[in-house]
Recover the amino acids of this structure.
């Protein structure tokens, strides 16, 4: 293609216009790239912050899990203690029943012995009275 003065000038202006368009597009791309980098930095900061929050939550979760396990262990200890206390109460109730039966038995035996002593006392008094009479009768004679 041969270039005459007018034609060359038009081509040159066309190329210059195209270069300016390309430069403008390059500037737009650079600006977009800058914006994307800023957004990426912002997202990275947010991601870092979120990771820190996750670490903190994981740490809190570990503490809560230990506390929960401690409460479960304490609850198990309390349940075992409660069971032991119930067994002890049952044992005490059985001892109480046994002691009440023994008390009733000994009370009956004591009542019987007192009755026997009262009868013995009366017999002794009667015997003593008759000895006294006999002694009085023999003394008077």
């Amino acid at each position: 293609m041969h270039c005459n003065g007018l034609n060359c000038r038009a081509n040159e202006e066309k190329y210059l216009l195209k270069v300016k368009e390309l430069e403008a597009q390059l500037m737009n791309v650079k600006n977009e790239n800058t914006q994307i980098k800023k957004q990426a930095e912002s997202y990275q900061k947010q991601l870092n912050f979120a990771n820190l929050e996750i670490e903190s939550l994981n740490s809190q979760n570990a503490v809560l899990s230990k506390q929960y396990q401690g409460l479960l262990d304490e609850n198990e200890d309390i349940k075992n203690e409660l069971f032991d206390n119930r067994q002890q109460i049952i044992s005490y109730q059985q001892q109480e029943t046994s002691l009440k039966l023994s008390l009733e038995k000994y009370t009956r035996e004591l009542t019987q012995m007192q009755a026997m002593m009262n009868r013995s006392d009366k017999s002794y008094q009667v015997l003593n009275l008759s000895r006294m009479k006999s002694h009085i009768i023999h003394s008077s004679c």
